[in-house]
Amino acid sequence: MDVRRLTRFALPALLLCCFAWEKANLNPTSSRERYADGIYYFEIAQHVANGDGLRTSVSLYGQGLRDMPAPATVQPLWPLVLGYTGRILGMERAGHWVPEAFYFASLVLLYLLANRLGACLGARDLIRFRGATLLDLGTLAIAIFGRNAVFSAYTSKSYTEGLAFFLLFAALLALPIAGTRRVLGRAAAAGALAGLAYLTRSQFILVPLALAAALAISRVGEPRLRGAWLASLAAACGVVVPWIVFLVTSLPRVPIRVLVDFSAYRESDALPVPEIAVAYEGLADRLLDFLGSFAHAFHPTANHGYAESFGLVALVVPVALGVAGWRLWRRRREGATALPTGFDTVIVLATFLVAGAALAPAHLSHMAFRREWLFGWRHGLPLVLGIALALAYLWRFGIWVRIALLVVVATGVVFRASPPNRYVKDRPPTDAEREFIEWIDGHSRPPVVLSVAGRWLAAMSKA
Question: Which end of the chain is more exposed for a tag (fewer CB within 10 A), N or C?
Fold first, then answer.
């Protein structure tokens, strides 16, 4: 192998080895989580593994399901992937190994994506010595994301993050580039992958629209991109529509909110709906709260802000936005109104719009209980796209800016914002819990059980 290629890939390979060692030490058990979404996906995946299809034995949040197991309203792709691999590996092994496999696959795609962004913005190779690349933008990106405690912890359990980000990065990499022969085919592939990302994680519902918008804007001045936005959107719809048909044909009435909140489906209107979101007095009040969410999200010491997950490197995003806005204002004052379009801008614009689309639900979800905002949790992870873009953009502003960026990134990687163990609740069942599970399994038809740990009981028993 070429020595220059070895020097380029040496540091990324070393980082991946370090992440593998950390993953091996973390090693939680998927079925020991009591209350959160991961065990709910695990329980549905068990039905898939047993040949029951997308069904659940848990009635959540006042749903009032009458007959169980009932059709599951959660995004289907992750339970299907987990369930079918669980048939081969066993559910416990699949619940641990499959998300970790997607963790590493996501980092590899992020490396490629960040370097493609860097090439478009003139900041792919950050440090070179005698013609060899010692550090590139992709290495910084995977160092930041791989060391993120939230991403690391939740890709060691049966959560959607590993598969969802794998598909999200793949969608951006599939976008047509200069020299592409089959422009419409690549645009359609990107749209289909974006649709699959949404079918994995409802937070990504706006991502297919963001991709289509980027292609529509970039087609100005580039005839080969005309129609690409429509191909992308049509492919995304083609992927998503079968799931909507499944919901409509499996359930008596399906509120449209189910597309973003699987617990919105209810069979009994008599049960109270828990109010967990902040109530607004009107559209103006909601808009002010949305704008105020950015001040909280990027405050360096705010509870549940982006810095809680990414550390201070999260602040490069508002800095880059401020600098870009100021430079754009200056260009307009000087009479330069045209912005670059065409193949060179597709992936940059798409990454910018996709990051905003993926983060928008977090900025629109103001909770009225202990975790007021979700920026420092799983919902804030798409910020990594904005961080990669911001690093590439700011790298052009001289040696002192570059040194400052490297110091911030290195500090965040060495002294991470929080440890992964903070997000891992790995408690084995007690003797009393085992006896209760045996009692459930002793019935020919699973009994109705009211419990705050209903998802866990359904996953641990034969219900």
Answer: N
Cα separation, 125 vs 135, whole angstroms: 6
Task: Report which of 150, 148, 135, 141 is spatially closest to residue 172, judged by C-alpha positions.
Answer: 141
Phi, then psi, of 132 in degrees rounded to 5: -105, 140
Is the C-alpha dihedral spanning 322, 324, 326, 328 positive or negative?
Answer: negative
Instruction: Write out the DSSP string of 67-132.
Output: SSSEE--S-SHHHHHHHHHHHHH-HHHHHHHHHHHHHHHHHHHHHHHHHHHHHHTT-SEEEEETTE
Kindly give, in sequence order, each residue whose CB lies less than 8 Å from that of residue 295, ignoring residues fewer than 6 positions away.
Answer: none
* β-strands 125-129, 70-71 pairing: unpaired
pTM for this structure? 0.91
For residue 63, give the 3-state DSSP assignment: coil
Distances (CA, A) of 175 to 345, 390, 427: 11, 20, 44
Backbone angles phi, psi at 199, to 5 degrees: -70, -10
Q: Where are the alpha helices (DSSP H) in 219-315?
A: 228-250, 283-297, 306-310
